[in-house]
Give the backbone structure.
Amino acid sequence: MKLKRLIAAAAAAAMVMSVLAGCGNTAESEKTESTESTATAASEAVNKTGYPIMNEDYTFKIVYPVASTDKIGGWENKDFVKKIEEETGLKIQWMGIPEASYNDQVAIMIAAGDLPDAFIGQIPNFAQFLDSFVKMNDMIDEYAPNLKAFYDKYPNIKLASVFPDGSMYGLPEVQLDGYVAGKSLAINKKWLENVGMEMPETADELFDVLMAFKTQDPNGNGQADEIPFAFYKDRKFDLLKSAFGFAGYDEKDYKYPYLQVVDGKVDFYPVSDNYYAYLQYLNKLYSNGLIDPNGFIQEEVDMIAKGTNAQIGVFPNYSYDDITVGDYANEYTYLLPLKDSSGERHYLPSSWSGSVIVNQFSITKNCPYPEAMLRLYDYINSSFENRLLFGWGPKDMAWVDNGDGTISKKADPVLEGYNSYAEVRHTLSMGIKGVFLWTEEDNAKFAVTSDREIKYMERQDPYMECAVKEFIPEGQDYPENTQEINVLLTELRTYMDNFMAESVMNGIDDTKWQKHLEDCKKFNYEKYTELNQEYYDRMMKLAEE
């Protein structure tokens, strides 16, 4: 009953329960007969192989998010969807929702029971609405051979899609690129040369470098305008944690914030002595004017404005240098995670070598022919040529053939009339809003020719040499656990954000630390840790089976 309360809106739930109460065993019998009849009809209407996919006249409704970089604003009349309908014979009504309002509108649709046949795009709080979606396990072998082959090759991605009841209610969108070290610290090597210092390897050495950046005018403009360490409110200091014996992402987009795994045990590290020392170090940086005083409130765009004005010495880098520092990118290189007191470095890599969005494609209970929708997903991924077209765009517009067995993104310069490659990609294809299974072998066909790509690749191996061996894997938890964790985490995040800002700017002492330990208990960090330990243990057991 708890799951049902989570799944339906209150009014809808009351209506459903009222109907069920009046039906009794007769209704259950009729439901079973109806289900068997529908399954038989579906199997006759949908061809397992070949085209057309359907033998019946039916128009499917598919809801999807429209990328903000889509210059046309929807897929309805684009060439790639025309190709889908021409080759598969499917009739589809494409129902695009702007990505800015997609989550809100989809939540309203589900609560109202106004469901399409399928969604392309993540469902907010998906685990709480599983009764609205079709289990796909039993259909994959018969109707999705390409997906089955993909899962055989990448069993960890399949595992991440399986819910505790053993069922898959959603399928992934995958863009593997071989890059697991997605985040790093960037440091201005030209400034290092100007102040006559070596690359820092410890917290103390970094402090000395940042002091030199502040006091020795490394950008050479005669002004004291340097920002030794820049950050913004969603990307702070997580890579500095290595100097204090642990690794972790900033809390904005990491699914398991404040947690690490040590010898199989999930640990809430903000109550450790090392975290106390970490906060004291950050306060030392702040008190000496070495970190941006506006960092806790500014947006990324504010940090970029300073970076493109030659003002930043070190910054957290989650992609390419030039995004933050523009034309000054050639002055920067990566700074490895700092060594702790034992000489060890600690780094938490990305969960995947690229991007994996689990539950990107889901089929609703309203769909009378779910096998046809599964075959659509499999058709999109039936060949490299299809994945290239539906995920990136057409030849000579989004990419070019180099004539040597490789291809290159047409990104420098981009197609005339477009401002960025993101606009090209999301106007001419589904892009990352779609459901393509892009493998590392697919990605290897892209020739790496640009300096920024080569530079990004160069930091992969050195960072991965510092990678921790234990971490919480991606996967699906029990819906009720997910709900409880989300509630606990909402309060913990708010508290921890405020506590960190206060500690960094105003300092931390034993009295404040003891109060922090009491506050963490008040916000039930122990339950948060316990629930994640249960999840971790279950995922480890599944991985061994």
